[in-house]
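so my prof wants the structure for this chain in the tokens format not the other one, which i didnt know existed until like an hour ago. anyway here's the sequence
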Amino acid sequence: MRYELYYWPQIQGRGEFVRLALEEARADYADVARQRGMGAMMKMMEPSGTPPFAPPFLKAGKFVIGQTANILLYLGPRHGLAPKAEAGRLWLHQLQLTITDLVLEIHDTHHPLGPSLYYEDQRGPAKKRTAEFWQARVPKYLGYFAGVLESSGGSWVAGRRVTYVDLSLFQIVAGLRYAFPKRMKVFERRIPGLVDLHDRVAARPNIMAYLASERRIAFNEEGIFRRYRELDA
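here's what i got, hopefully its the right format
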């Protein structure tokens, strides 16, 4: 099957979690807005049938599947990135939904008053939100995932086989390193297992090839992970 991924063409964003899974699986897919333009994506969002609310969404045959975690729930067992048993699939989905919560909190460090305002209009609240994020939220989230990994009995969160959640945790570590290099350098001492997981994912042949290719969009100040010097004090 040739998949069609619909997401904004200039950022990694939430679509990157799906791209990583497709790349690890060596799936045949088109990154539609990047290859055919925004018009092709917007046409798919017209109100008919069961339209997606927002990108990312994936066209798989007759299915149009929206929401990152929902897309990964579909792709995982079909490409060896999730257990086939229902209990294992639901466990991974639960973890991915928790990552979704974390992604929102990361976004809110630079846009705590909402996405309709420019960052420059909310610098003060952003500094306050970021301080609380690193004091309380990062230890809670990354400490939780570090514990899950440690108790898995293997090299990956589900044990001996890599899953889409491992790929997503790689993206979280990579993104936080980009957005908060100083803070992350200090905090990584507390999560050596997640750091090792990041490195193992980066060394996987398909992911390594993807990261070195033009298909991997560079981090920038339009996506979820944004580098503002005053927030990384």
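also thought this was worth mentioning. The chain has two domains: 2-78, 86-204.
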